[in-house]
Amino acid sequence: MRPPHDLHEPPLRISFKFDDEAIEACEGETVATALLASGVMITGMRTSGRTRGPYCLIGVCHECLVEIDGLANQRACITTVRQHMKVRRQTGLRRLTEEDGPREP
Amino acid sequence: MTNGNQHEADVLIVGGGVVGASIAYGLAAEGARVGILDAEDSDFSASRGNFGMISISNKGFNNLAYFRLSYASSRLWPEFASTLREQTGIDPAFDLKGKIYLSVGDAEFAAHTEKVAEYARRVGADYRHDILNQADLQHMLGKVRLGERVAGGSFSPLDGLAEPLRLYSGLLNAIQRHGGWILRDHRVDRIEHQGGMFTAHGQWGSFSAPRLVIAAGLGTPDLASQVGISVKVRPQRGQMMVTERVEQSFPYPISGLLRQNPEGTIMIGVSTEEVGYDDRTTVSVLKSLARKAVERLPALRSVQINRCWAALRPRTEDGYPVYQESREYPGAFVITCHSGITLAALHERLLPKWILGGRKDALLEPFGLGRLQNASAA
Fold first, then answer.
1. Is the Cβ pair A102, B301 closer than 8 Å?
2. What is the CATH number of the domain that holds A76?
3. Which end of chain A offers a freer environment for a tag, N or C, measured as fewer CB atoms within 10 Å?
4. Domain containing residue A71
């Protein structure tokens, strides 16, 4: 994530997909803040059926897990928005496959 | 004296970890008035940092009495767990599902095979533990692929697991439901004995009871010396980590190394280190644990580690539990062990009668301090 003084003024507009919805965001903000600013409160569901959404916004509580570009268990609150990224509500547990290599945080 | 009506007790327990809480629960269920005096939450607490395994098949290779003790506890666990759940609504998630052992390399597998055979000879009919080849293991594990260097392993249906924090909170809840009380941040610094009463002095005042149990883990030796019992307990560090939640990937815990919790997190543990009173984590040890895990189940390579921690096991000199009543001050008991989860059900069931003046169960007899050469039980 780049520090704010590095960002363009005024900030560049970025758009990404949240399920089938187009979300407008500013460069440098996180997926979670962009979703909250667009009125999206629910970003996933536990296997128990309980809904969940961004809560702590500092990467600790893991309530905002979403699938980003095919990778599950991504914390929306510590992932910076990128143009055309595909974000999906996560409704189940991440599948464990050997194909996924080690991932950057 | 702040010892008002609400803090009366037939038995005081000094130390509010899983061991003290299991005893207190058993005492309270017997109708005794019981009070727990616990020190600070920030103290070394194996009860808050352990792996939660109920291990039988690797206990007491050189001490059959210890195997029998652990085995008896595992037989008591089902009823202990269901009663606790019914009384408190907190499910300790006990499951005696068995445990897999994995050997990396032929030499390790050969040594493991020989050890299991010798165990069976020593223990006899109660010892159930089957050696398995790679194909058997793969079949038991299901779709997650076994690492290529795993030469073989075994499965013992004697073992199981629980969720240690739920067990702990369930115990504390149950004690209070039975009228017991728990005082936190109350470090007991002095124990006195007068007129058949023990008085424990600490930050919140002084509390008295005719019987007193010291189950204070690493804090035990200092307190025990005040009731005429000399016992040594040393810290042994265990580091572990927990991963992100993933779908259920392996159905059985893998000895001393891996377990997957019902909500999907995988716990990877546990080191055994003699580093004194230091409960920090180290990158080198965590790295070697992660490497061992990936060597056995390569798919774990992609799983993110969310949290690492360490806890200190309270180890007695010979590693076995100590159940000792003071000869100098009858009514004062010292109880310490490092397998507080495995032995929780046995502690709840067998210790209260003895503490309340009854006979010491034959299973507990071998675990007095008399066995330790340098120890004097006064």
1. yes
2. 3.10.20.440
3. C
4. 13-92
